[in-house]
């Protein structure tokens, strides 16, 4: 009897923008009958909130305070995406390009990270079975996870996927700003391009969506056997 099907399991998935973390992690969570935590949505929600208040995203102390004060609620149901700030539904708004272009200001704020990591660890501890994805889940948020996976894909594949996902509304320069330039900024505080010790890499460049889900599920099985 495979141990991935029953009992407590924490699956940690990291990777760059457009590698398929959110969509693949959600599908993996459904298959494992687990909760799903999109940690990037938390960074995005804080960015939305700071912009909505008209505060300066470059004011590190103000951003750190905004995170501590944030009344942030996030659904962990893989079939019911919902992100709320002070009761306001921001699920769709946090995906807008203006958020993608500004979110690194929150992601590179170390005090903001510490508070969000703390909240993420609380959510993971509160769920018996959970798949959590982001940039530092395998290394900082849940280094003791049962399975730790780095999901990668070539730059070309990631730009193409994000372009399709945004319905062709963004030109090449805009996509590069939202994917490659953002990753470059985020990489200054977290390493999500190389697998840490004990982290398995799944490269989805030449895999379609279903094949990527299967490859991640195989990696989870393999990790649980060790
Ligand atoms: N292996 C794959 N092949 C093709 N498209 C994919 C694959 N994995 C994910 N996608 C698609 O690429 C887009 C970006 O995926 P997403 O899960 O949002 O990535 P991330 O969370 O890493 O930024 C989505 O539209 C998703 O459906
Ligand atoms: N654990 C995490 C998750 C996301 N972030 C940051 C880095 C990203 O620029 C933003 C948004 O993350 P998100 O996963 O939504 O980004 P993409 O799906 O790759 O576009 O948050 C982080 O620093 N640490």
From TrEMBL:
The keyword Protein biosynthesis does not apply. ATP binds at residues 15-23. Keywords: ATP-binding, Cytoplasm, Kinase, Nucleotide-binding, Transferase. Residues 11-221 form the Cytidylate kinase domain. GO terms for biological process: pyrimidine nucleotide metabolic process. It is an enzyme of class 2 (transferase). It is found in: Cytoplasm. This is Cytidylate kinase. It comes from Glutamicibacter uratoxydans. The lineage of its organism: Bacteria, Bacillati, Actinomycetota, Actinomycetes, Micrococcales.
């Amino acid at each position: 009897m495979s141990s991935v099907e029953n009992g407590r399991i924490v699956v940690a998935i990291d990777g760059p923008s457009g590698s398929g973390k959110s969509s693949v992690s959600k599908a993996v969570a459904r298959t494992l009958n687990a909760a799903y935590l999109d940690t990037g949505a938390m960074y995005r929600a804080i960015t939305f909130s700071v912009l909505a208040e008209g505060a300066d995203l470059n004011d590190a102390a103000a951003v750190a305070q905004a995170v501590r004060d944030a009344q942030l609620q996030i659904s962990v149901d893989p079939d019911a995406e919902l992100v709320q700030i002070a009761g306001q539904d921001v699920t769709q708004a946090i995906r807008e390009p203006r958020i993608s272009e500004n979110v690194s200001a929150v992601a590179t704020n170390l005090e903001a990270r510490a508070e969000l990591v703390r909240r993420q660890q609380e959510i993971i501890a509160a769920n018996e079975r959970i798949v959590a994805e982001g940039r530092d889940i395998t290394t900082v948020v849940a280094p003791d996870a049962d399975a730790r996976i780095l999901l990668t894909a070539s730059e070309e594949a990631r730009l193409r996927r994000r372009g399709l996902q945004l319905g062709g509304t963004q030109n090449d320069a805009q996509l590069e700003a939202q994917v490659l330039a953002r990753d470059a900024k985020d990489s200054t505080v977290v390493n999500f391009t190389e697998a840490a010790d004990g982290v398995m890499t799944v490269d989805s460049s030449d895999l379609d969506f279903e094949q990527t889900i299967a490859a991640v599920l195989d990696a989870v099985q393999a990790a649980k056997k060790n």
